[in-house]
Description:
It is a single chain. The chain has helices at 6-27, 32-39, 44-66, 70-97, 101-105, 122-142, 147-162, 171-180, 182-197, 200-221, 234-257, 261-274, 277-290, 292-295, 300-336. The protein is mainly alpha-helical. The chain has one domain (6-336). The longest helix has 37 residues, at 300-336. The radius of gyration is 20 Å and the shape is globular. The model has no long low-confidence stretch (mean pLDDT 90).
Amino acid sequence: MNSRLEYLDLSRFFAIIGVIAVHVGHASINNTIAGSLTELGRFGVQLFFVISGATVFLTYEHYQRTKENYLGVFYIKRFFRIVPLFVLMALYYSQKFNYNFISSILPWSGLNPYTYNNIEGGWSIWNEIYFYLIFPLYYMLRKKNGVIWLALTFSLISILINTRFFFGTDAELLKDFDYLNFFTQFICFVVGVEHFGKKNLNILVFFLIYFILGLISKLIFYPEFIFSADYGSLYWTALISISALYFVIAIKKILTKKNDDFLKKPIGVLSYFGQKTYTSYMIHFILIDILSVQLQQISFIVAFILITVCTFTLTILIENFTEKYWVKIGNQLIARLNLNKSK
């Protein structure tokens, strides 16, 4: 599947810009107004999840229509697309912070609040990995009206995490995990899948279950945190996922209506960078860390421009090794296993 949707690539660009902005904002001299704006950038990750849901749905349906061994093709391509760079980052952070490398990459590490973020920003990549793993199951359930049970199950698991049924009572450790764990964030992927799958009823089911159960559990257990994503976040991710979807829809409408040839080139450039967000996401953390002393001495705007330019420049220079090389190996494995047979 080689065709790309420009508005999704452009949405990815804005997602990575938001993520870079919020992290630079934490590391540089910031004022109150800029700080409030950059904090919105953290929702760029949920925007990524919505887009991932959309693209994985489109890709999976394409493989299902055209490949005899579509499951094998799907999993091999997903594995080589995301895991090698993730392992390289695990090696880097295990050396830098003296983490146990193996415990950072075990298949269940992303479900453990003690290890899910050993790799800087790794929580989001773990969520992507788990989404890929269960997507064929979700795809089957969505066609058999099973989404209500999945939504209820994931909501219950999220609430049990929030009420400290799992993982003990370390409030400082778990308050981020309340929001960042896979079960709480799963609705963002669902919204992307079902928008492109044209099953708005499934979006409504997930939204209502996440929002209502999340709000009720918050009012029962943590009413003092009603406006915080800590200690129960289901209703927040329900609202954020819908907002992210409408952002994508808005980008699509803007691109559909644009007739100005003058804008085509800059939009094309931004969309081009939007295709390179995985490497950009992983390395911008390292760049901020390396330049942390310098960033603390300059304004947010200067720091943001510096990190953004360095991130995209370095991504272009190294993506052949961080991504393309491994994708090529995956394609070679698929060919060797003769999995590309057409239906």
